[in-house]
Amino acid sequence: MLRKKLSKFNIILASGSPRRQRFLKELDIPFTIEIKEVNEIYPKHLKAEEITDYLADLKSKCFTNLNSNDLLITSDTIVWFEETALGKPKNKKDAFLMLKEMSGKQHYVYTSVSIKSCFFQKIFNDVTIVEFEKFTDEEINYYLEKFSPYDKAGSYGIQDWIGLVGVKKITGSYFNVMGLPVHKLYKELLNITQ
User: Fold this and answer.
1) Could you tell me if 143 and 149 are in contact, meaning their C-beta atoms sit under 8 angstroms apart?
2) In principle, which of 139, 166, 176, 193 could form an S-S bond with 181, CB 3.0–4.6 Å?
């Protein structure tokens, strides 16, 4: 459905995430991937979705030569836990400590998306509340050894083993936790074509 409606646009996804790429494919949207290195530093006073909004916008600013028919999609996801943003872990020890801290508690996953052209920019976000079961050290170590989630905010992928055995409750979009609020992206892209 979107393929036909977006046929006059050249859609650029600025993300190396295989999950985000898969979501766009499943929406049947033709797109190209273009990745530019960004130093993901944000002002320390920002909180929760303010951080992801800022970073999604920051990623879009690397693209200064958009053509008139280009639509650039950038995105950022964080885990927000006890008033702190958890990004990607630095190493195995960092990942272990993150999961140990979140064990048996709830956290928030924020994802922001920027859709940008030469003529406009729309930034939107979504939040999902995830509650974990209590993990043993053995379970955390098993997960880290088998799945190496070092490219994921909060040191976990909800679609991995830890999501199968460790998510007690989820409120909001499952796909948002994977890195893209697909339902909101679909609606925003539809609005652009109307």
Assistant:
1) yes
2) 176
What phi and psi values does residue 50 have, to the nearest 5 degrees? -60, -35
For 125-186, give the secondary structure using H, E and C.
EEEEEEEECCCCHHHHHHHHHHHCCCCCHHHCCCCCHHHHHHEEEEECCHHHHHCCCHHHHH
- Among 76, 126, 151, 160, the one annotated catalytic: 76
Residue-wise pLDDT for 122-165, tens only, equals 999 999 999 999 999 999 999 999 999 998 989 999 999 999 99
Q: How far apart are CA 156 and CA 177, in angstroms?
A: 10
**Is 126 among the catalytic positions?**
no
Look at residues 60, 57, 67 and name the one whose alpha carbon lies nearest to residue 10: 67
Sole residue written with tokens 């070092």? 150
- Which residues contact residue 8 at a Cβ distance below 8 angstroms, ignoring those fewer than 6 apart? 69
pLDDT band, very low/low/confident/very high, at 68 (cuts 50, 70, 90) = very high
The amino acid sitting at 131 is E
Q: Tokens 């976990």 sit at which residue?
A: 156
Q: Residue 128 pairs with which residues in a beta bridge?
A: 109
Q: 13 pairs with which residues across the strands?
A: 33, 73
Task: Give pTM, 2 decimals.
Answer: 0.94
